User: Fold ATP-binding cassette domain-containing protein from Paracoccus hibiscisoli.
Amino acid sequence: MARAPLLQLSEISLTYGGDPIFEGLSLNVQPGDRVALVGRNGSGKSTLMKVMAGFVEPDRGDVVLAAGVSTGYMEQDPDLSGFATLGEFARDGLEPGEDYLVDMAAEGLKFDPDRPVDTASGGERRRAALARLLARAPELMLLDEPTNHLDIEAIGWLEDHLSQTRAGFVLISHDRAFLRRLTKATLWIDRGAVRRQERGFEGFEDWREATWAAEDDARHKLDRKIKAEAKWAVEGISARRKRNQGRVRALADLRSERSSQIRRQGTAAMAFDSGTTSGKRVVEATGISKVFGDKVILRPFDLRIQRGDRIAFVGPNGAGKTTLIKMLTGELAPDTGTVKLGTNLEIAMFDQARAALNPDQTLWESLTGDPDMRVSGRADQVMVRGQPKHVVAYLKDFLFDDGQARAPVRSLSGGEKARLLLARLMARPSNLLVMDEPTNDLDVETLDLLQDLLGEYDGTVLLVSHDRDFIDRVADTTVAMEGDGRATVYAGGWSDYQAQRGEVQPEEPVSVAKSAPVADKPKAAREGLSFTERHRLEALPGLIAKLEAEIAKLSEFMSDPDLFTTAPAKFEKASLALSERQAALADAEEEWLALEEKAAV
Assistant:
């Protein structure tokens, strides 16, 4: 028997500022759905999610939530007013005794529940909002960019958590690896229409290209038909005027159909301006280290960067990635060691905090007010790669329309701010690019283009990112900072780093849960495994340790003999969570044993 949908949208229409975002949109979210919501920046993904959550009311149509179904919405900018600490906010609405749910989420997402709200960063506030949603465990979760401000370890924790949940969820994310692992269906917003495919994000790009190819073929056939009918009209209409008025009207209808077709949005016309060629040696760091107070940021470290290198810096938030890059570029002096910069360096920096953007300026002022881009004597032009260009024309290259030129920067979405920052960056000549989290908020198409541009760039690239897929596509070297002050250099991108780290013995013992197996066999014992199996074998001990810790907390919570009689619903919820984790632990241990046996063959 078919189950009723958790959520139904029927004939939804919504208009902002005269332009329709959706017209006649209908879709269902089924129990247990794991849906990727994808589309270009500005296509309406976040707006559609707010409609689903009930925060935006459509002009027409119905939004129906099944009776008794609970929903949770991951807010981009959560309101924490009225709460003293992040933990107080995250625990709000939980039943007494369920605080452990927030504690588990806080540990996995890496924020301090005791942190005062007044001193919390934007990233910490978002992590607290995500913990609040996960602790409440709604039957339908609406997650808008949940991986923003998470480091790679926290993203892995969230992946594991969502992979085990029975709840349905709709997910917006720029992180392709995250989407590929978690989703089983895809909603694609394209020019106001929403298409659904019963395949996860893994198949999205092939589906998109096939859809566009079919669309182009149909448009080509329509154009040929219009051309043929127009030729007939010119050559024979005077002799057959009375008998063929229907055919004339049909030609007008064809032309109307063709003109009403909405053109696909193009990709941004981005291009980096490679400046003068730098010397072959870009940076040579020898024995550099850094300590802040009693925290060791970097133990003595050597690194040589050559012209054309693409180096990714990875590690947990706070491990010192940005500090290391500042030392390598001469912005910050190391406590010990030396940094020698090469000749003819022209450095351009992409700042993840968007600090170069003044929210009170207009987009026009943001470009023309930059001394490096200003054209002498012209208030309406900017200097782009050595040539003057009208500011509106340059903004159009980055997919901004005429009306946005005089809009304040604060009105832009996260993806639009990233594009504006790229517009400023790409106008300047450079031969060393420092990219600190450039992928946040960018859509898949722009990420693809940025990846290609970085590949074609003549200079050197230093990249800080938590986007594993992007690192794999761009980096030829990875510097891993594990948070203990040690930095290790690996050849290749993220996947190569993961494969190699299992073959490198740590200098100090690594503490793991007592019963968690340790995947530390040498390379020779792993040759029977595929790359995916080796990666999985490395990840399983951490997953097993996490499940054991959660089982211990749940068992302690259920040890109260009065819990069943005083709070039966809470007891049932905890029992279900315990049985799910016990089953997941058994599966993980069995999988680890099978892979170990295969590796030993």
